[in-house]
């Protein structure tokens, strides 16, 4: 995000689009509550009446899959009502004329049917946003997990550029990153096109710099971007990817369209899984490398506002496990590339030297409670709480903010009479990602457990003869799972919502892969499903319980039955 | 009793907290006064650490390196030395036969931290010779 | 006047951190790792409706219906709250029916009972479960301590007075403005 969490609390207007902080980041949601208490205007755009919508000044309950149509109507309104900041646009942006070419057909009155939002509400939202002294646009997966995600992000950025809401206190753009260190993984160059510090693999000078530091011939470095994780199953089935080294991830649970992921993993010659838990992915591995967990090692994470923070070791690891980077170093050394580090700080200092935007972030400066936001180019630099304060947008040579938007495209898989409901996958407040960690925590398991839930509006449920808390089948063109109906009046009619960590009610057996062409993010916010009631609830309860117990027992036995070769013989 | 300052391993809010350790075991988590969390935590921060003790409520922790010699047979537990040699040999063979781009690696957006992610991409780029490294930023 | 726990629905985000804190605080060992779906009996409950998210707990009524109806005199006003004496509770559920707030629940938990014949048997003991303001906890109510949005407060006489004064002021001034406009 271009701002800090402090700016969210101190902004005069929060424009929340496709982001449910109360479930995904309660401690960020807390800042929204505080902003509200301090008098900020809050506008929420979401198909569900999420917690933030409850306390908002304005709630635009748009149809699932209509993001781009709504944002184009916002842009239309800013221009047509002359609400935009003309001076800012003239000085710091380019592309204004092109913008109008796209949005001219998106008058608020023209998109009412597509978005489900009355034109007056659309216009009022822009008057509030443009009229605020400062405003932050917050968004989450409700924007990015669509086939048109990247384009939608650009058009949200256009709203900020049009109104001059960038580069100053309380004004900016805030995509709120999901996992504790997803920002950090990106910062560290765990991306197929970027070295650490967002330096391009296509740039020969950058390749040379890294090659020199790593003691290899620059010609050995691959000048082409690599493949993205979401494409691996298909590439494996085509025989293009033969070996897969997965560290600390469980694609069998978290990626869209599980059956396609399964086929991809089965097609590999070699699957190496390095993790702390036996997961559904680890179960399929050829080699399992057990690692130390959070709590058993130290290091640095980057949180959602670009802040580097240190974490320390609390307890000694109890099992025959090793630190992740030590395992990788041992493999590298065995492959003829000597690699050795004594501790986390040695690695950190090596990467600081190679990444100008992190150079000033030393272990000493972070200390125990410090939070240093990149860019931080020198040892004296305090870090950068707000990006773009010089209003130079250096992603392009001109340094000007690019005003971009695109025509709205409908989601890939629309509802039909056979599959009349939209399924959107969302987050569970007490569980996290594939649940290998939180599912093993006593209290969190007590709060929510298998077979998970499908949130449905009571009106839709009654039409289908479904009772609250009853077990139901949810079925898409790709699969069918059993889960528990959860009546929720805040859910829009015509759509149902499932969280993605359940083994039995596994929504990714249902989701589809239609990907954003730029990021290859699957469209997990939209596919067509049908719900079927189950007459014999006793059977259903025992069936769901059986699947759960079988899977638990299976994964446990994989670990318990593993013996040394000599004993096995 | 000792306290270790950590950052919560769950969402991206970056909450600082103290793990209170007694006799080598964590007994509770307390909120620390970090920049982002200002002395507050949510339920995952307060009550989300006991997985470390291998509770087996859901799935067991991995305790030993393991190899499956051929598809469909059970895992064998092996020494670290054997596991590392096995993986290195297989990666080298596949790289030789199908080229560096036939090998895919991932970082992790979760508990391991930035240092490991740096080392993993270095492994992909310098040792394997491919930019095939990515993370689950899209889920 | 008894104090009681009140949630501000404008701050509650429905995260249920209070429920877990309550369940853990009322375990004899205070150990979160012993919590399970079977013994998870929080005395504060998050309620979500179409427009409201909030947490509900006992109001510690001054003339408490639960205490009035208890046939075994197990519920008393003492220590500044409405206190259930578990030794006297027979699990008859009359208090559950009487409570207008749904704040009382009867739950069961296994206890070892000496039968007198030198044989210890495991039996289910019923207990009337309600907020006790964590009166044995030096830091005070656990739910208030953990609430990430500071939506929970313990209201005493002074705070109640202040809330009323503010409402009087707002009502009078708003009404006054309308009368003379």
TrEMBL record, chain C:
Name of this protein: Electron transport protein HydN
Family matches, as Pfam families: Fer4_4, LdpA_Fe-S-bd
Keyword terms: 4Fe-4S, Iron, Iron-sulfur, Metal-binding, Repeat
Organism expressing this protein natively: Shewanella fodinae
Keyword Oxidoreductase (UniProt): no
Stored PANTHER family: ELECTRON TRANSPORT PROTEIN HYDN-RELATED, OXIDOREDUCTASE
Highest taxon of source: Bacteria
Domain called 4Fe-4S ferredoxin-type: residue spans: 2-31, 80-109
InterPro entries recorded: 4Fe4S_Fe-S-bd, 4Fe4S_Fe_S_CS, LdpA_Fe-S-bd, RnfB_subfamily
Transmembrane segments: none
Keyword presence, Transferase: no
Single GO MF descriptor: 4 iron, 4 sulfur cluster binding
């Amino acid at each position: 995000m271009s701002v800090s969490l402090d700016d969210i609390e101190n902004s005069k207007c929060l424009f929340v689009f496709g982001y449910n902080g109360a479930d995904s980041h309660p401690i960020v949601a807390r800042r929204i509550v505080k902003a509200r208490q301090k008098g900020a205007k809050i506008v929420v755009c979401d198909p569900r009446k999420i917690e933030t919508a409850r306390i908002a000044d304005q709630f635009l309950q748009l149809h699932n899959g209509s993001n781009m149509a709504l944002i184009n109507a916002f842009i239309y309104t800013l221009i047509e009502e002359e609400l935009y900041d003309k001076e800012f646009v003239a000085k710091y942006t380019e592309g204004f004329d092109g913008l109008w070419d796209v949005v001219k057909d998106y008058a608020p009155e023209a998109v009412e049917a597509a978005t489900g939002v009355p034109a007056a509400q659309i216009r009022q939202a822009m008057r509030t946003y443009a009229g605020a002294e400062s405003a932050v646009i917050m968004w989450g997966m409700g924007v990015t997990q669509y086939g048109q995600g990247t384009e939608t992000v650009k058009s949200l950025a256009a709203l900020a550029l049009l109104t001059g809401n960038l580069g100053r206190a309380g004004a900016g753009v805030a995509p709120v990153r999901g996992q504790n260190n997803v920002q950090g993984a990106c910062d560290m160059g765990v991306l197929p096109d970027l070295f650490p510090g967002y330096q391009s693999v296509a740039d020969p000078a950058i390749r040379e710099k890294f090659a020199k530091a790593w003691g290899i011939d620059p010609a050995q470095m691959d000048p082409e971007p690599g493949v993205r994780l979401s494409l691996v199953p298909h590439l494996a089935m085509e025989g293009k990817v033969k070996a897969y080294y997965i560290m600390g991830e469980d694609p069998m649970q978290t990626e869209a369209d599980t059956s396609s992921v399964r086929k991809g993993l089965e097609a590999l010659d070699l699957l190496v899984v390095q993790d702390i838990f036996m997961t559904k992915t680890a179960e399929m591995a050829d080699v399992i490398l057990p690692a130390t967990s959070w709590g058993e090692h130290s290091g640095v994470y980057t949180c959602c506002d670009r802040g580097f923070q240190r974490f320390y070791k609390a307890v000694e690891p109890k099992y025959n496990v090793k630190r992740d980077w030590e395992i990788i170093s041992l493999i590298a050394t065995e492959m003829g590339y000597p690699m050795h580090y004594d501790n986390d700080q040695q690695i950190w200092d090596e990467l600081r030297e190679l990444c100008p935007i992190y150079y000033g972030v030393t272990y000493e400066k972070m200390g125990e409670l410090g939070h240093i936001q990149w860019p931080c180019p020198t040892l004296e630099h305090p870090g950068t709480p707000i990006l773009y304060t010089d209003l130079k947008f250096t992603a392009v040579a001109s340094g000007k903010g690019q005003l971009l938007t695109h025509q709205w495209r409908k989601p890939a898989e629309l509802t039909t009479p056979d599959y009349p409901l939209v399924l959107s996958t969302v987050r569970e407040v007490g569980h996290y990602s594939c649940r290998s960690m939180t599912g093993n925590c006593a209290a969190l398991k007590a709060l929510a457990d298998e077979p998970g839930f499908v949130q449905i509006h009571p009106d839709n449920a009654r039409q289908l003869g479904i009772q609250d808390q009853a077990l139901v089948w949810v079925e898409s063109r790709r699969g069918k799972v059993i889960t528990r109906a959860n009546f929720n009046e805040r859910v829009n009619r015509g759509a149902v919502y499932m969280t993605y960590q359940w083994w039995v009610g596994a929504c990714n057996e249902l989701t589809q892969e239609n990907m954003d062409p730029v990021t290859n993010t699957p469209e997990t916010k939209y596919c067509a499903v049908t719900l079927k009631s189950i007459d014999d609830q006793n059977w259903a309860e025992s069936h769901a319980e059986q699947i759960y117990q079988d899977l638990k027992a299976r994964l446990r036995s994989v670990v318990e039955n593993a013996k040394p070769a000599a004993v096995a013989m | 009793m000792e306290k270790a300052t950590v950052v919560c391993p769950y969402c991206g809010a970056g909450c600082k907290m103290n793990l209170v350790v007694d006799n080598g075991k964590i007994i509770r988590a307390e909120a620390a006064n970090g920049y982002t969390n200002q002395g507050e935590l949510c339920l995952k921060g307060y009550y989300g650490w006991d997985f470390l003790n291998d509770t087996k409520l859901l799935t067991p922790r991995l305790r030993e390196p393991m190899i499956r010699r051929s598809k469909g047979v059970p895992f064998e537990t092996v020494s670290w030395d054997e596991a590392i040699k096995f993986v290195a040999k297989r990666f080298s063979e596949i790289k030789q036969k199908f080229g560096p781009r036939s090998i895919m690696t991932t970082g992790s957006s979760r508990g391991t931290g930035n240092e490991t992610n740096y080392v993993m991409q270095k492994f992909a780029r310098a040792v394997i010779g491919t930019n095939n490294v990515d993370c689950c930023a899209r889920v | 006047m008894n104090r009681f726990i009140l949630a501000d629905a404008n701050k509650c985000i429905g995260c249920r951190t209070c429920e877990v804190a309550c369940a853990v605080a009322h375990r004899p060992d205070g150990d979160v790792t012993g919590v399970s779906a079977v013994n998870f009996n929080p005395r504060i409950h998050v309620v979500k409706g179409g427009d409201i998210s909030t947490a509900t707990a006992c109001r510690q009524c001054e003339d408490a219906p639960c205490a009035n109806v208890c046939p075994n005199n197990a519920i008393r006003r003492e220590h500044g709250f409405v206190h259930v004496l578990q030794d006297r509770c027979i699990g008859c559920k009359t208090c559950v029916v009487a409570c207008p707030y749904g704040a009382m629940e009867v739950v069961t938990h296994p206890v070892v009972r000496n039968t007198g014949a030198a044989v210890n048997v495991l039996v289910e003991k019923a207990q009337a479960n309600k907020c006790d303001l964590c009166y044995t906890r030096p830091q005070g109510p656990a739910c208030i301590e953990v609430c990430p949005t500071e939506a929970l407060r313990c209201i005493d006489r002074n705070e109640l007075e202040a809330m009323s004064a503010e409402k009087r002021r707002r009502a009078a001034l708003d009404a006054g403005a309308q009368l003379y406009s």
